[in-house]
Amino acid sequence: MTPHPTVLILPVALPLLLGAISLLFQSMGPDRRVALQRTLAGLGLFANLAVAGFLLFWVLQSGPQAFQLGLWPAPFGITVYLDTLTALMLVMVGLLSLLIYPFALATIDPERAQLGFFPMMLFLLMGANGAFITGDLFNLYVFYEVLLMASFVLLTLGGTPSQINGGIRYVVLNLMGSMMLLLGAGITYGTLGTLNMAHIAVRMVEAPYTVQALIAGLLLVAFGAKAAAFPAFFWLPSSYHTPHPVVTALFSGVLTKVGVYSLFRVFPLFFPTLLATWQPLLLTVAGLTMVVGVLGAFAQPTIRRLLSFHIISQIGYMLMGLGVALSPSAYGVGFGLALAILFLIHNQLVKTALLLGGGAVELEMGTGKLSELGGLVHSRPLQATLFLVAAFALAGFPPTSGFIGKLGLLEVTFAAGQWPIAAVSVFVSLLTTMSMIRLWQSIFWGKPRLAPPPEVRAPGRTLWTTTPSAILVAISLAIGVAAQPMLALVQTAASQAIDRAGYVRTVNPALTEQERSLPLGIQSQPSERAGG
Amino acid sequence: MTEIYLRLVDRILTPILLLIAIFLFLRGHDLPGGGFIAGLVAAAAIELTILALGSTATRDRYGPWLAPLLGIGLTVAVTAALIGMAGGGFFLGRWIQFEVAGETLKLGTPQLFDLGVMLVVVGMAVTYLLRLSEAAEAATPSAERQEPRP
To answer: Are A22 and B71 an interchain contact pair (Cβ–Cβ within 8 Å)?
Structure first.
């Protein structure tokens, strides 16, 4: 079975088309418009997950695939590249947004829905999918901008003063990250004369160390800022607690994870040697991200503020995986990256489950302040159980996906001889456990301090808000219990992500052959390129 | 209402600017120009109307079209990309040629895409300008504002 390679563009084209159509009916009455947009968004999210699942199936059957937009050959046209890592991320983001959709249906207020919540969800999905699947550095930047626009609208939808405040910090700090990315792309084009990622992979290894280090540093800062890694994480805790809880849950599964994905994609492909020489730097950033995140979480007074600091802390584990991505281990080179991918997937599941659970509590009780909540285990035993399992999964207890991820990461870091970061990560896990138990206790344990407002006790709504987290927790447990198939899957993903020759061969085999006749831009015509 | 010279300028210049926008749009196929810049010029033309007639009258004239324009433009642009899909590639360029009064005219998906861009830009920019002048008019005390003549 070989489908036409044009289907590779569907993860971008489908949400874009449905989002555009749902903007067509702005002159209609608000109720009918919202009903239509809701239907289109549900249709789009469902179709997107179906496409993503099909792409994963296809890539597992017949290996990585590439497609050139407009059929222009590789360095000239815009490349779309799909391998197992891309397909896994497409499936994960598709799954999360589809699971968040019923929660949004049940809880989003009519005002936000009328302002265009559902089309924006589609545009956010389009930006994330585009950033995953593109094979062109400049287009990666463009899709980050799409993400930024859509997320900024979602963040400020409703227009309360705290939202505007958080939104401005979010957009300013993220624009700085985008500028770094644009600068990195510009310098890449100025020195290597190409923006196609396969072509960059061919030319980057021949570039002088200064050029490599400059571009790698800029991209590390840019993607690090997007992923909320250590020095540039301020935007996340100052904005994530302001919007509607469903928006926070959507962001935690999508936004920071796109930054982490880009690091996983770009570093093994462009800078395989720097991954080894910069290992101390990467591991330091990872350790600081973990520690700062978890310590920040202890000081937080509300559910969502606390959980957003844990997002940062968990990003540190993924960076730790990136740091040991290519370290040799008993399971072969690339096992570190495989576990980092597994941890990324685990974190998307568990974090979204926690934020959905916490968000449901916040919406039903009318407050997210830990000092005012308590004793909810009596009225909501199911929610309390789900939250507890998800909290232990986040801390890394067996038999959840978090245990597999953390155990594997520890094994690789020990094998690489990086015991300080291993010690830090164990210590941070301990602190995470303490913090999560404290959070669970103050929400669900003890005596009820606050009677829930009677108008939100409709049983139908609880079903819509609990089922998504139940499914997410179930998947996390399933990964933890049946780890072997999942490990095999992420190992395939990692081995394809570090296979630079395979990437270039899939995009365009001619790229390597041209190099003998086409010297590097930095050596040949500096004046001409400077003019352009 | 506002000064008579502004209304005169609007009466004369706005149609000319809109024609220039169409010219720029068509020129953009092979030469500098294109949908984005044409959209901005068209928005500038409508801004003249806002200055001459005030935001209320302008919103009465264009208002119902503004919000759907974004959707229409995006749909047109995506359609242009999807037409290429029929030929085997997303965004694959496809052209048709026909003779009009001895001249060969070329129409194709790049122009359709550009048209979508133009519509989005017009919709965005005019919405933005209208909101700005509405905010400015609301901030001006009504005594200073010149009320429309009956």
So the answer is: yes
| One-letter amino acid of A322 | L
Provide, as residue numbers in chain A, all residues whose Cβ is less than 8 Å from the Cβ of B93.
70
| Residues with pLDDT less than 70, chain A | 1, 450-460, 513-532
Whether residue B150 lies inside any domain: the answer is no
Kindly report whether the peptide bond that precedes residue A399 is cis, defined as omega within 30 degrees of 0.
yes
Q: Is residue B128 part of a domain?
A: yes
Per the model's pLDDT, the better-predicted residue between A136 and B136 turns out to be A136
CB spacing of B78 vs A16 below 8 angstroms: yes
Is B149 inside any structural domain?
no
Give the minimum alpha-carbon distance from B85 to chain A in angstroms, rounded to a whole number. 7
| Element at B107 (helix H, strand E) | strand B103-108
> Residue written as tokens 């953390």?
A406
Strand, helix or coil at A292? helix
* Structure-block tokens of residue A417: 């001889």
Average pLDDT score over residue span B58-67: 81
What is the total count of domains within chain B?
1
User: Tokens for B70?
Assistant: 């974004």
d(CA A309, CA A289): 10
Q: Is residue A331 packed enough to be buried (19+ CB in 10 Å), middle (13-18) or exposed (0-12)?
A: middle
At A188 the pLDDT is 94
> Which of B62, B74, B95, B109 to mutate to probe the A interface, most A CBs <10 Å?
B74
The CA-atom distances, in angstroms, between B35 and each of A277, B48, B94, B116, B120 are: 47, 20, 18, 8, 9
Least CB–CB distance from B70: residue in A16, A23, A69: A23
B29-52 burial, b if ≥16 CB within 10 A, otherwise e?
eeeebbbbbbbbbbbbbbbbbbbb
- Identify the pLDDT of residue A459: 55
Query: How many interface pairs between A and B have CB atoms less than 8 angstroms apart?
Result: 57
pLDDT band at B145 (very low <50, low <70, confident <90, very high): low
User: Within an 8 Å CB–CB cutoff, is residue A23 touching chain B?
Assistant: yes
Flag if A6 and B89 touch (Cβ within 8 Å): yes
A465 contacts A106 by C-beta, under 8 angstroms: yes
Q: Report the SS3 class of residue A198.
A: helix
Q: Which of B75, B78, B92 sits opposite A71 (nearest CB)?
A: B92
Looking at mean pLDDT, say which of A118-122, B26-30, B47-51 comes out highest: A118-122
SS3 A267: helix
Nearest to B91 among A17, A19, A69 (CB): A69
Nearest chain A alpha carbon to B73: A20
Distance CA A360, CA A107 (A): 9
The verdict on a CB contact (< 8 Å) between A21 and B84 is: no
Reported as a single tens digit per residue, the pLDDT across A466-525 is 899 999 999 999 999 988 999 999 999 999 998 888 898 888 888 776 555 444 444 444
Taking each helix axis as running N to C, give the angle between helix A245-270 and helix A84-107, from 0 to 180 degrees, rounded to the nearest 10.
170
Question: Which residue of chain B is at minimal alpha-carbon distance from A123?
Answer: B74
Measured between CB atoms, does A29 come within 8 Å of chain B?
no
Q: What is the extent of the structural domain holding B93?
A: 4-139
Query: Does B36 reside within a domain?
Result: yes
Q: In angstroms, what separates the C-alpha of B73 from chain A's closest C-alpha?
A: 8
Nearest to B88 among A13, A17, A71 (CB): A71
Q: Which of residues 61-100 of A touch B (CB under 8 A)?
A: 67-71
Q: How many alpha carbons fall within 13 Å on the CB side of residue A405?
A: 34
Mark out the alpha helices in chain B (DSSP H runs): 4-27, 35-53, 55-86, 109-139
Contact A443, A374 (CB under 8 A): yes
